[in-house]
TrEMBL record:
It comes from the Eukaryota. It comes from Malassezia globosa (strain ATCC MYA-4612 / CBS 7966) (Dandruff-associated fungus). The keyword Nucleotide-binding applies. SMART domains: RAB, RAS, RHO. Keywords: Nucleotide-binding. Coiled coil: none annotated. InterPro entries: P-loop_NTPase, Small_GTP-bd, Small_GTPase. Residues 101-113 have a biased composition (Acidic residues). The lineage of its organism: Eukaryota, Fungi, Dikarya, Basidiomycota, Ustilaginomycotina. One of its GO terms (molecular function) is GTP binding. This is Uncharacterized protein.
Length: 201
């Protein structure tokens, strides 16, 4: 069964840097068109935004660009925007797929390779294209897998590092909306690695 975001959910996340502790209140807004009109009340006072697209769908990358333009036009002028390419676990990049192409090996290995190949989806958004766009638009850029967790910690840590030290958080009013389901989860209980910057993911 597939799960879709139908409204907004909020979680809390803490990210400890060398010189400070950043406490995120993360609002996951729906990406569907019918909820677009509600988005401004979530990003209006935001200090950071992660615009996520699917690396296997070019259309989602184009949609991400439109969100970036809207944020740059209407959000806090000092907002930190990160462009995040998701679902890299599905694509056949050299760094993520190791399949025996020699033609040698036993039947069990062949079956495993066939299974791995059957799960591979064609990448429609080249990493270089997304990186170039992010550079031109002044965005942070990282690729992730929400399924495996790859790159997620790095994404939050990079965002935290770029939030100005003197930035003052503003109280978020979106929770009062009947369209928002607030579910605050403190992830701080997970163990931090001593001596390293990072979030409690």
């Amino acid at each position: 069964m597939k799960s879709f975001t139908l409204d907004a959910n909020a979680v809390q996340q803490r990210c400890r840097l060398e010189d400070r502790l950043i406490k995120f209140e993360i609002w996951d807004t729906a990406g569907q068109e019918r909820f677009h009109s509600l988005a401004p009340m979530y990003y209006r006072n935001a200090q950071a935004s992660a615009v996520v697209y699917d690396v296997t769908k070019a259309a989602s990358f184009e949609k991400a660009k439109s969100w970036v333009k809207e944020l740059q036009r209407q959000a806090n002028p000092d907002i930190v925007i990160a462009l995040v390419g998701n679902k890299i676990d599905l694509v056949a990049d050299d760094a993520h797929t190791a399949v025996d192409e020699s033609g040698e090996g036993d039947d069990e290995d062949d079956e495993e390779n066939d299974s791995a190949k059957s799960m591979i989806v064609k990448r429609e958004v080249p990493k270089s294209e997304a990186q170039n766009y992010a550079d031109e638009a002044g965005l942070l850029f990282i690729e992730t897998s929400a399924k495996t967790g790859e790159g997620v910690l790095e994404a939050f840590t990079e965002i935290a590092k770029h939030i100005p030290v003197d930035a003052k958080p503003k109280h978020h009013q979106a929770a009062s909306s009947g369209n928002a389901r607030t579910e605050l989860v403190d992830l701080q209980r997970r163990t931090n690695v001593p001596g390293r910057d990072g979030c409690s993911c």
